[in-house]
């Protein structure tokens, strides 16, 4: 087994097809790569160096930086989206948020964080009045590549998936529409309440798109360090996914049969939601009884 060092990661990325001037939309799980340089902070800084030694001044990297929300019937006054809000999208996104040179888009729940090249202009139209994934239109117009480092699993999706749902109008019917909120400061620094009107929902079934992406030669695989990784042309992968979801909007339902996002929406499932909610209620009652009386769920 070869030792994973800065130069070997750089070579792995070049072998995957990363070039000078590229705009990269990235998902990354650095722990899967097996690269460590002194401490956590130095390791993440080295990652940034690696990217920009390849991309140069004109290249950019962008990652999701989605943030916490509350239900409209349970408002949290102190939950305000700002440039520095922590994200649930992983260590590298949070590391970039702390970098003063990075730019964050102003969408209050589905912001992205990016650095390098023309990043200000890439992100300028992604804000409280735009759709949640509209930034992908700009990325695709700039011939962005979608890179997944160590994130080929059943949690992360090929990057274009939620944008394709947006283009098809599916996101306008998500479960929870009108009830998911956060506070934010608008461009004039006035505190406002944001209500989410569109969302891609659950991502756990996104892995089902790898088949069509492979058959259409829209994805290439390789290793970055120890991490199984993939790269896609932004526009072409979008076209392949769009065609699949146009034919079957339920292709990307996840494997959890109790998932409300995938199985609880009338728009996606029609009258199948009736048996779904009966199952869901029975499951909830079982859970409560189990907690109270220690009853086992096991069937004999
Ligand atoms: Zn689901």
Give a description of the structure.
The protein has helices at 6-16, 40-55, 91-97, 119-123, 135-141, 161-167, 210-215, 234-247, 260-263, 266-269, 273-293; strands at 23-28, 60-64, 70-71, 80-81, 103-104, 112-115, 145-149, 180-185, 191-195, 220-224, 227-233. By secondary structure, it is α/β, with parallel strands linked by helices. The chain has a seven-stranded mixed sheet, with helices on both faces. Strands 3, 4, 8 and 9 form a four-stranded mixed sheet that branches. The longest helix has 21 residues, at 273-293. It folds into two domains: 6-254, no CATH class; 264-300. The protein has eleven helices and eleven strands. Zinc ion is lined by residues 202, 204-205, 254, 256, 259, 261-262. The site of zinc ion has 8 residues, from helix 9.
């Amino acid at each position: 087994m070869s030792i994973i060092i800065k130069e070997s990661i750089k070579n792995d990325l070049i072998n995957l097809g990363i070039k000078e001037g590229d705009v990269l939309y990235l998902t990354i799980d650095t722990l899967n790569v097996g690269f460590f340089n002194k401490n956590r902070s130095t390791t993440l800084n080295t990652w940034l160096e690696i990217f920009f030694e390849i991309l140069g001044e004109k290249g950019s990297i962008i990652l999701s930086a989605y943030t916490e929300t509350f239900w409209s019937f349970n408002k949290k006054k102190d939950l305000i989206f700002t440039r520095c809000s922590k994200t649930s999208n992983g260590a590298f996104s949070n590391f970039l948020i702390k970098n003063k040179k990075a730019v964050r888009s102003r969408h209050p729940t589905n912001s992205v964080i990016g650095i390098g090249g023309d990043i200000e202009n890439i992100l300028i139209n992604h804000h409280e009045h735009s759709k949640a994934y509209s930034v992908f239109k700009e990325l695709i117009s700039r011939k962005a590549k979608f890179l997944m480092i160590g994130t080929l699993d059943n949690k992360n999706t090929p990057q274009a998936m939620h944008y394709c749902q947006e283009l098809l109008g599916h996101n306008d019917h998500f479960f929870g529409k009108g009830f998911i909120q956060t506070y934010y400061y608008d461009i004039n620094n006035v505190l406002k309440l944001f209500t989410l009107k569109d969302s891609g929902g659950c991502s756990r079934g996104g892995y089902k798109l790898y088949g069509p992406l492979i058959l259409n030669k829209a994805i290439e695989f390789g290793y970055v360090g120890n991490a199984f990784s993939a790269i896609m042309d932004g526009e072409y992968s979008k076209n392949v996914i769009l065609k699949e979801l146009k034919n079957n909007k339920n292709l990307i339902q996840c494997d959890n049969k109790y998932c409300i996002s995938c199985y609880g929406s009338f728009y996606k499932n029609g009258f199948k939601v009736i048996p779904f909610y009966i199952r869901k209620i029975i499951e909830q009652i079982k859970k409560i009884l189990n907690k109270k009386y220690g009853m086992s769920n096991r069937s004999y």
